[in-house]
Amino acid sequence: MRTPARGEERIGSDAVVELVTRAYWMELETAANYLAASVNLDGVRAAEVAEALADDVAEEFEHARRLARRLSELGGIVPGSLSFTPEQHSLQPLADQTDVVRVIEGVLEAEEAAIDGYRDLIEQCDGIDWVTQDLAIELLGDEEAHRRRFQGYLREYRP
Questions:
Q1: Could you tell me the residue ranges of all domains in the chain?
Q2: How much is the pLDDT for 159?
Q3: CB atoms within 10 A of CB 30
Q4: Which CATH number among 3.40.50.300, 1.20.1260.10, 1.10.10.10, 3.50.50.60 corresponds to the domain 14-79+91-157?
Q5: Closest CA to 26 of 153, 154, 140
Q6: Strand, coil or helix: 94
Q7: How many other C-beta atoms lie within 10 A of the C-beta of residue 151?
Q8: What is the pLDDT of residues 30-51, one digit of tens each?
Q9: For the segment 61-94, what is each residue's pLDDT rounded down to a tens digit?
Q10: Within 13 Å of residue 120, how many CA atoms lie on the same side as its CB?
Q11: Given this model, what pLDDT does residue 8 score?
């Protein structure tokens, strides 16, 4: 995070800036992994899940863009790729490109992590930073909708 210039006030607490930065990276990593899975999934049964993942890529990038803008507004620096540490092991490409269930499980794990992260951010901002809190609440709703859709896909594969 950068130090504010003279006459410039940083409005975000270190904890809020850290959580927004973490959410930013999670969204970018999710977008990259959804893109890979949407292209790599193969088979007739995989088509609908691959299409849903492809559609979600744009939304995840939009989340990252909004978080980046908010991070800048808070006086933080939007980090570049050298600051990135991947964490989504369950969403890595599979040797069996027809294993739709494993991809769905990876998506659900990523969505749960995002939901937990946004809940932490909402709590950290409560009564302190309503703008970031409102953004986190909106993005939480999107992530919950993603989770619900992929829970439905999983039920189709595991009645």
A1: 14-79+91-157
A2: 73
A3: 27
A4: 1.20.1260.10
A5: 140
A6: coil
A7: 13
A8: 999 999 999 999 998 899 999 9
A9: 999 999 999 999 999 999 999 999 999 999 999 9
A10: 15
A11: 42
